[in-house]
Design brief:
The chain is built from seven helices and four strands, in the order H-E-H-E-E-H-H-H-H-E-H. The chain is α/β, with parallel strands linked by helices and 170 residues long. It has a single domain, classed as 3-Layer(aba) Sandwich (Collagenase (Catalytic Domain)). It has a four-stranded mixed sheet with strand order 1-3-2-4, sandwiched between helices. Strand 2 and strand 3 form a beta hairpin. It is globular. The N terminus and C terminus are likely disordered.
């Protein structure tokens, strides 16, 4: 598992994570895992019942305040999307990270009638990011992006560590 202060996350990403958490008012710790399509497929299957990889998953923590939750990002999908969108992999990871943080903050683009998309657009501008995931989701089918299904899925409250313990007990 890779946390925001873990040496495995690029310092640019760590700086962005801190700024985005502040902008959203997220005070608790957020652990970020940048992983493969294989693991994202497993996580998506285990937590959402969808046997396909996805670009980003958010796992909100129980409401204890110290831990906000976990975010998993597919390095493979981020890489596939970065090239046709004309920006570096690190930029795509920041876009996915913002989208995941919005879910940790309680937003849900599948049911909020555009509220999350509007906030994501505002934060994208504030944080100097290109087109938001909400905007891109509607364009994806027309431009050949590698997104698998809808972006930024919100899962039930459970951390990566809790999920691993659950799997070991099974």
């Amino acid at each position: 598992m890779t946390g925001p202060d873990h040496p495995g996350i690029d310092s640019e990403i760590k700086t962005f994570l801190r700024a985005a958490r502040r902008a959203l008012g997220i005070g608790g710790q957020v652990d970020v895992r940048i992983t493969s399509n294989h693991e994202m497929r497993r996580l998506n299957r285990d937590f959402r019942g969808k046997d396909t990889p996805t670009d980003v998953l958010s796992f909100p923590a129980a409401q204890n305040g110290k831990i906000a939750g976990d975010i998993a990002i597919s390095r493979d999908i981020a890489r596939q999307n970065a090239k046709p969108l004309g920006h570096p992999l690190a930029t795509e990871v920041r876009i996915l990270l913002l989208h995941g943080l919005l879910h940790l903050a309680g937003h849900d683009h599948e049911s909020d009638h555009g509220e999350m998309a509007a906030l994501e657009q505002k934060l994208r501008i504030e944080l100097n990011l290109p087109a938001s995931l909400s905007e891109r989701a509607s364009e994806a089918s027309h431009k050949g992006y590698a997104e698998y299904g809808a972006s930024g899925h919100h899962t039930s409250p459970m951390s990566f560590a809790s999920a691993a313990r659950k799997r070991k007990r099974s």
